[in-house]
Amino acid sequence: CLGVDAQAFLEALSRARGGEAEARGAGVGAAPAPTPTGLWTSGTVRGSGKNVYVAPVSGEPRPLAGDLDAAIRDALAKERRITVVAAPPADFTLETSLRAVEGRVRVRAALRAGQGQALWSERIDGTLDDPFALEDALGVAVARVVEQRLLPAGGPGSPALRAIYDEANAVFERLELTPLHGALATLEALSEADRADPWITTLRARLRMRIWLIQGAFESDAPIVAEELLLRALDRDPTIAEAYHALGSLRLAAGDYQAARRAFEEALRRAPTLAISHVQLGMLAAETGHLAQGLRSLDVAMRLQPENASGALERLRLVALTEPRAVAEAEVLRVRESFGPFASLSLEVRLPFWWRDRALAGAVATHVESHKSGASWEHAAPFLRDYETGPRPEWVASSYAGVAKMPIIPRRRTLLLMVAAEHLAAIGAVDEAFGHMQAAADAALVDVLWLDRCPALDELRDDPRFGRIRAAVALRAAAVWS
To answer: Which listed site, 1, 45, 58, 87, has its alpha carbon 20 to 30 Å from 29?
Structure first.
């Protein structure tokens, strides 16, 4: 998890760029967007990516021209991927003229590429007795054209590097190890300068994290390496929402739910349409007992990014917990069709125990065995085969006995304890099931929805032990939002 030194680094970085950070334990402080006005030095804004020359505003009255010039520069300063240069040449030139007649004012603004070709123009009308409205309207127009014309959705500024980034980012949305390894190898083979691009650095970290999680999230230096990369990316560009989200994912894996929540919220402050952060916040909401809120967040995420595999998998889990089996089975087929045969396997291996269906256990085992990838869910095949052919309670119990001490991250350990409890409950090993539920509660369990709705636990809910476990988990779940 993020240590004190790394937390102090983020806070110092935010303060140096004009922002504020509030230390909240070991998590990422929820800081407002950094104030850009302190970045001016001799008429140039420090930044990276494309550069713009702002030509002096022409026309009368001159005081208003000066105010409009300041409004333009303020709007540009808020986008750190744009550098405002003091003099041409530049990638782009922004020209603005002003004309006033009998109290009425017309402002014309135009953006030209380096060779002079016009890319955009706009006319703004106002009055001399309300200059602030003109300033605001011009600032909004400039910010909009920068976002729409100069800055494609987050990524490297270089077109060639952007193409590599987009291809690797598309692979990231697939839950298949071989393509993920290939995408990471492609990025690692770039030149040192290209690897240091903050967007490339962020994606390198995210790919490493996804591979590590799919392979079982065993204790290793993988999260430390990923965190270092993310901090380096934020050092270069503190506006990258994906980097804050990835830090949140590391906190989530470590079972630090409050810090994870704050990091996801911080990501959305920087990029309100970042679908994956909506997914993770929706997942946390649903797990902690706020099902309607969780479903809304997931619906928003899937509208923002229909190809988001993580969102589809989480929605499938909620459907399987809360809807009739037929609805869940239809959703499984839809997810497979949309995202490939691996997308829903991490949940599918649990469904036979939820529904007490031994024939389904055999079918899922066959599906797992026919889609070898090296992912951690392949370890479920022997358990599914045992359930299919007639369970051996002693073998099952002994096989799960070491889960609580496995060298894996807290949230993954908690998940395996939940799976063990489901399986043991499904074969009637009640005491062993409660032992694993208690171990999950002692670890990092916040999933009140699972306790309340998982069909595999139906016969356990009247036991006093269940009530004690649920009460402890509910307390931790409530603390996620405090």
So the answer is: 45
